[in-house]
Amino acid sequence: xxxxxxxxxxxxxxxxxxxxxxxxxxxxxxxxxxxxxxxxxxxxx
Length: 45
Prior knowledge:
Blueprint: H1 5-20, H2 29-43
Helix pairs in contact: 1-2
């Protein structure tokens, strides 16, 4: 299945907030990619 970015971004945002907690640093590219993959798996499983 192909997913639109707009469908995944809200879930990725929530995952990033949980991952980062209250930290104000940015995510690495690798971690962002992992969160996008997790969002795709969980959103449409």
